[in-house]
Design goal:
- Residues 336-431 form the AMP-dependent ligase C-terminal domain.
- Its EC number is 6.2.1.30.
- With 434 residues, this protein is α/β, with parallel strands linked by helices.
- It contains twelve helices and 21 strands.
- The strands form five sheets. The chain has a nine-stranded mixed β-sheet with strand order 4-3-5-6-7-8-9-14-13. The protein has a four-stranded antiparallel β-sheet with strand order 10-11-12-15.
- Helix 9 (218-228) crosses helix 10 (341-350).
- It is globular, with a radius of gyration of 22 Å.
- The longest helix has 22 residues, at 15-36.
- The chain starts with 7 loop residues before the first helix and ends in a 5-residue tail after the last strand.
- It has helices spanning 8-11, 15-36, 38-47, 68-73, 107-123, 142-154, 166-176, 185-197, 218-228, 341-350, 378-381, 385-403, and strands spanning 87-92, 102-106, 131-134, 157-160, 180-183, 208-212, 231-238, 243-249, 256-258, 263-268, 282-288, 299-305, 307-308, 320-321, 326-327, 332-334, 337-339, 357-364, 367-375, 408-412, 427-429.
- The structure holds 5'-O-[hydroxy(phenylacetyl)phosphoryl]adenosine (DLL).
- 5'-O-[hydroxy(phenylacetyl)phosphoryl]adenosine is lined by residues 93-94, 136, 142-143, 212-215, 234-239, 243-244, 301, 303, 324, 327.
């Protein structure tokens, strides 16, 4: 039996102690940003705040927000707060539009990040006796490096697979007895599909998976758990803050514990910037407490989420975040109704379809249209055309009933939608092409 926590004194610390760390960390971080980055200093001066105005967490609202646009504007060194000679690494986001975001790390920053990832692995039942297969992409993306580092810190045998080469992934799982798989949920679903089609479930020893980097539904979780015979845990994070490990699920799986010794989490109303109370849905905002090279002060993630300070029976005291529904930029507005791709995923899986789908949004005669391509399984594929049309109509009805939107549904042949090895691209928004 391994330890239940990686750092019990931190993960289960009393609230008063957490608040004390947060106040001290905030003061330190604000000073670091103000004194070492002209860009941060400019933003604070514009808002009329000085480091001496921030004495503790209660003063956080005085500080200006930092947005993705700020990061782009300050690229590459504007927010850097340590000389390059003290930095040991960069990582970068997978952004497809505009400039990439680059984050810098000192060795201290890397250590703190890897500790968060080690906590996540232990929370998923990991011990030094586990074999951890890291199938997130390695390179600039933080997924591979983060979980790799966490697994090392814990002392587990680490398989630095990176993503792709599905056959080889399964071969290693079999040959080396992988017990914990780390990858994106869409890649886990693909691996699960392959394992179950080939009848290999009995030949692998997986017990848990740590999946994140994109929004995924509870239905998708059950699908993956079933196909791989595991318990699937969610993990959250973003490059700007460190990478994976900002939040992670424990065995209770009722939200992800945010590493509150490293970050202050707030929920704000995305329109007004006002802080919202526990339990209300809004945009997640983070402030780093200990980052040296690249501190983030009130960073607006655009992720839509809910926080809960309710006591968790796992013993951890850090605040929990619900599964993010997706980024506000991924939210589709279809004839005035807000829909996230993950909600459509829920309807599809509940109606017996696989999580292989694509959404095509367009504007025709000034009205938004949504087309959903969904894969049939082999069995459905052999149905008659009229049976397939009836299935399509049933799915249109289910979507309308559940989400209140009208979408055209096209059932497509098995395996015709490209599988993802990293973050899945589920939405094609043709409106952005005009
Ligand atoms: O995706 C870091 C990561 C790697 C997290 C591996 C978990 C596992 P970025 O590429 O900077 O970093 O993308 C960050 O991905 O703002 C969310 O919109 C989304 N995201 C990350 N984790 C989750 C999750 C990594 N568990 C952006 N659920 C974030 C939903 C997630 N969305």
């Amino acid at each position: 039996m391994g330890k239940k926590y990686y750092q019990e004194d931190i993960e289960c610390a009393p609230r008063e102690e957490i608040s004390k760390w947060q106040s001290e960390g905030l003061v330190r971080s604000v000073r670091n940003a103000y004194e070492n980055s002209e860009y941060y200093r400019g933003k604070m001066e514009e808002r009329g705040v000085k480091p001496s105005d921030v004495k503790g967490v209660e003063d956080i609202h005085k500080l200006p927000f930092v947005s993705k646009e700020d990061l782009r504007e300050a690229y590459p060194y504007g927010l850097l707060c340590r000389p390059l000679s003290e930095c040991v690494r960069i990582q970068s986001t997978s952004g497809t539009t505009g400039r990439r975001v680059i984050a810098f790390y000192t060795q201290h920053d890397i250590d703190a990040w890897e500790e968060c990832c080690a906590r996540a692995i232990v929370a998923a039942g990991g011990t030094r006796d586990d074999v951890v297969q890291v199938s997130y992409g390695y390179g600039l993306f933080t997924g591979g490096a983060g979980l790799n580092g966490g697994s090392h810190k814990l002392g587990s045998l680490t398989l630095p697979m990176s993503s792709g080469s599905t056959e080889r992934q399964i071969q290693f799982m079999q040959d080396l007895g992988t017990t914990i798989l780390c990858c994106t949920p869409s890649y886990a679903a693909y691996l699960g599909e392959t394992v179950s089609e080939k009848g290999l479930k009995g030949t692998i020893k997986l017990k848990a998976g740590i999946f994140g980097a994109e929004a995924w539904s509870e239905e998708m979780r059950r699908d993956i758990e079933e196909k791989l015979g595991i318990k699937a845990y969610d993990i959250y994070g973003l490059t700007e803050l460190e990478g994976p490990g900002v939040g992670y699920e424990c065995e209770e799986q009722r939200g992800m514990h945010i590493c509150e010794d490293q970050f202050i989490a707030e929920i704000i109303d995305p329109n007004t910037g006002e802080t919202m109370p526990d339990g209300e849905k809004g945009e997640l905002v983070f402030t780093s407490l200990n980052k040296e090279a690249f501190p983030m002060i009130r960073y607006r993630t655009r992720d839509i989420c809910v926080l809960s300070h309710e006591k968790c029976s796992c013993g951890r005291t850090h605040v929990r975040m619900a599964k993010p529904m997706g980024r506000s930029d991924d939210m589709l507005i279809i004839k005035g109704v807000n829909v996230f791709p993950s909600q459509i995923e829920t309807v599809l899986i509940n109606n017996g379809y696989s999580p292989n789908y694509q959404l095509v949004v367009d504007r025709v005669n000034n009205a938004d249209t949504l087309d959903i391509n969904v894969e049939m399984n082999q069995e459905m594929f052999s149905d008659t055309l009229s049976e397939i049309s009836a299935r399509e109509r049933a799915l249109v009805g289910a979507l309308k009933g559940f989400l209140g939107i009208y979408a055209r549904v096209h059932l497509v042949s098995p395996k015709s939608i490209e599988r993802s090895e990293g973050k899945a691209k589920r939405v094609i928004d043709k409106r952005k092409l005009y």
